[in-house]
């Protein structure tokens, strides 16, 4: 069985974009792969995030993984910082990445263009992510479109390392869902729906209550063409069609057919109700799980222990290959 690895970064509340582009698909894939899912909390430190908020986000994301049905018996579910091998392999990754190629990462360039200061950690973010993937001999990395460039650089680093030291890393492949790989904002459908968003109406959070979801969809930007057609000329309508088709597991064509002759109000309200049906129970489960921190701590520990076994083995192999001395061998 091949190994699957993916993660989310706890820099804010998870969105419908994270859900449709990633987490929903993980649940469907976990039976077909040896699956490993992480809360990438070290990644969250690459931007300025409040410590209380970070702790809260870590628990919420971990609870979300369980609430959507990721199974800690079948899969490994853990927090990145609790497996110290991540920080160790990240250093090795840094030493095998060229400054030029890291400078070309679009997410870094975007931050650099708009943030007052950017940390060295933010620059090194793709190398930390590459280490995440490579520690577990990963074959498949399911992500949304925005993370594909990071999977690509991970592959480049692994290929480079293998070419120099012989077969060490499994070369992973990134996969994006056919539909839903880039859910756009509801107010600005030309921009990705993101956790770090100033305009709350642009984003559906997994934890939003039913009425908030209804209100946000009601306010969603469409256009004046008065037709429900998928295409570049109708980004708002297309985004709603994508959301509807992802949730109802039908093609865009089928979704379009379903709304034939309907007005935008119907498209918005039916999409809102589909979203509520799907994420409402998840939101309630998250709440319930978060009230039991002891259980979450226990599950985190279980996941970290399982993850560490694999991670240590890979890291020891890497240390030996580059010529470091493993004292435990002596
Ligand atoms: P993060 O937390 O930004 O996003 C988590 C996942 O959600 C996807 N995603 C979206 N998909 C569709 N539409 C959107 N609007 C949307 N927004 C986000 C992302 O593509 C991602 O799959 N660096 C990663 C976390 C990470 C990771 C890893 C992922 C750390 N190590 C190793 C894979 C493998 C991140 O910040 O994801």
* Relative strand content: 5-15%
Helix content bin: 40-55%
Shape: globular
E-strand count: 5
Helix and strand succession? EHEHHEHHHHEHEHHHHH
CATH superfamily assignment of the largest domain? HUPs
Bound molecules: tryptophanyl-5'AMP
Please state the average pLDDT score. Answer: 96
> What profile does the largest beta sheet have?
3 strands, parallel
Q: Decide which structural class fits the backbone.
A: mainly alpha
What name does the CATH topology of the largest domain carry?
Rossmann fold
Report the radius of gyration as a whole number of Å. Answer: 21 Å
List the helices and strands and how they pair.
Elements: E1 3-8, H1 16-29, E2 34-39, H2 41-44, H3 51-67, E3 76-79, H4 85-95, H5 99-103, H6 106-114, H7 120-135, E4 140-142, H8 148-165, E5 173-175, H9 210-218, H10 235-248, H11 252-258, H12 264-290, H13 293-322
Parallel strand pairs: 1-2, 2-3, 4-5
Helix pairs in contact: 3-12, 4-7, 4-13, 7-8, 9-12, 10-11, 10-12
How would you describe this protein?
This protein is mostly helical. The protein contains 13 helices and five strands. The strands form two sheets. A three-stranded parallel sheet has the order 1-2-3. The chain has a two-stranded parallel ribbon with strand order 4-5. Helix 1 (16-29) links the parallel strand 1 (3-8) and strand 2. Helix 4 runs parallel beside helix 13 (293-322), helix 7 crosses helix 8 and helix 10 (235-248) crosses helix 11 (252-258). The longest helix has 30 residues, at 293-322. The chain is globular and about 75 Å long. The mean pLDDT is 96. The structure holds tryptophanyl-5'AMP. Tryptophanyl-5'AMP is lined by residues 5-9, 17-18, 21-22, 40, 43, 129, 132-133, 141, 143-144, 146-147, 181-183, 192-193.
